[in-house]
Design a protein that fits this description.
9 helices; three-stranded mixed β-sheet; alpha/beta; 260 residues
């Protein structure tokens, strides 16, 4: 069991604790003996309004932001992520939180990338808000997850036909991203070599092709129409890692077999 220097259990608050990533992060932290505060509406905390944040952060040393808002709307995403980041910063400062770990998307801050996706614009605005705040922030920058292939099957659908853009990515499993986030959350403040910790998969893949493989594996008669996007950052490598990053080992085919 990990402990702080004073012999007490480390206390970490996880925002979005019931979500696809947040629930996994909570599990990894608890496996390591961490006292985890699950922050979600189900626990009576509304990060968007700020209600309940002060109580949730009481005695917390690190806050992990895994918040997610499933929306393609640029306006709604920017409003949500900037508002929640401001509320988290204010409550963290009042409560004496030492550090915030914010999970973001690979290259979301690049204007050539987020101009195409409203959700990415929200994440870019979230990063800017946290960087301007008074509490130290570590950004865990993750490539897209294999699980996105399943999400894409339902976003643009006409009967059995699923329209999916041919985005080039270097994806990984959400479980690997969660373990990486937990590792960063347990690092002592000020020990990281950079304020970014980047993780991506081992292979460059086409997300439309991954969606097609998921559809075939799951059954149900769904057909995938791949829409080329060669003249945008989504199709010309804008979603690929740049510089140093940690490589997640699980290949897509192994992940797909393991989740069927």
């Amino acid at each position: 069991m990990e402990s702080t220097g004073g012999g007490e259990r480390q206390k970490v608050a996880v925002l979005g604790a019931t979500g696809q990533l947040g629930a996994r992060v909570v599990a990894h932290l608890r496996e390591r003996g961490v006292d985890v505060v699950e922050v979600s509406r189900g626990q009576g905390v509304d990060v968007y309004s700020g209600e309940g944040l002060d109580a949730a952060f009481d005695g917390v040393s690190t806050v992990v932001d895994c918040l997610h808002l499933p929306t393609p709307s640029r306006k709604r995403a920017v409003d949500f992520f900037t508002t929640t980041a401001r509320n988290v910063l204010a409550a963290a400062q009042r409560s004496g939180v030492a550090r915030i770990v914010c999970v973001t998307i690979l290259n979301a801050r690049d204007p050539e990338v987020h101009r195409w996706l409203g959700y990415y614009s929200g994440k870019a605005a979230q990063e800017q808000t946290y960087r301007a705040g008074p509490v130290p922030v570590t950004f865990v920058v993750s490539a897209q997850w294999y699980e996105l292939a399943e999400t894409l099957l339902s976003q643009m659908r006409i009967g059995p036909l699923c329209v999916v853009p041919g985005m080039r990515s270097q994806p990984l499993a959400a479980e690997e991203a969660a373990a990486f986030v937990a590792d960063r959350a347990l690092e002592p403040a000020g020990t990281a070599a950079s304020d970014d910790a980047v993780i991506a998969g081992s292979e460059v893949r086409d997300m439309a092709e991954l969606a097609r493989a998921v559809a075939e594996r799951r059954g149900g008669g769904r057909k995938v129409l791949r829409v080329p996007v060669p003249f945008s950052a989504l199709g010309n490598g804008g979603l690929l890692p740049r510089g140093n990053f940690t490589t997640a080992p699980t290949r897509f085919e192994d992940w797909l077999r393991g989740t069927s």
